[in-house]
Write a structure and sequence with these properties.
Elements: E1 2-8, H1 14-25, E2 39-46, E3 57-65, E4 68-76, H2 79-119, H3 121-124
Parallel strand pairs: 1-2
Antiparallel strand pairs: 2-3, 3-4
Helix pairs in contact: 1-2
């Protein structure tokens, strides 16, 4: 998976970059792409500099897998918490999409099976 990280309104440290890499690389098991062209664009940053109570961090992910686009965004007081939440949202979106496609395939297979049962070709030949 190609991962592109962008920082807004602050400098990204190697520790943050490693943390993002570890969290996003765990999405590989959900986002299996046949040709390996999965692309993940991540943007992390401070939303504004005028909050009295402290910094507010934003994490945003755009994931492109097999012609499908998945998007998630999170705002938290802690950057690591925002990254964790946005990763969980993307994982949920990927698994629900996968479950939906499997369900559609199973329904189609069940219809074919019932059609074949209805033909009952063994009794017609006797």
């Amino acid at each position: 998976m190609n991962i592109k990280i962008k920082a807004t309104n602050f400098e990204i440290t190697p520790a943050i970059e490693d943390y993002i890499g570890k969290r996003i690389s765990s999405l590989d098991k959900f986002a299996r792409d046949k040709d390996g062209s999965a692309r993940c664009d991540i943007e992390v940053g401070k939303t504004t500099k005028h909050h009295r109570s402290g910094d507010v961090f934003r994490a945003e992910i755009n994931l492109h897998v097999s012609g499908k686009n998945f998007y998630a965004v999170s705002e938290k007081d802690d950057l690591y918490a925002a990254i964790d939440e946005v990763r969980d949202e993307i994982a949920y979106a990927l698994t629900s999409y996968k479950d939906r496609t499997i369900t559609v395939m199973r329904r189609g297979a069940l219809k074919v099976k019932n059609m074949l049962k209805g033909l009952d070709w063994r009794n017609k030949n006797r």
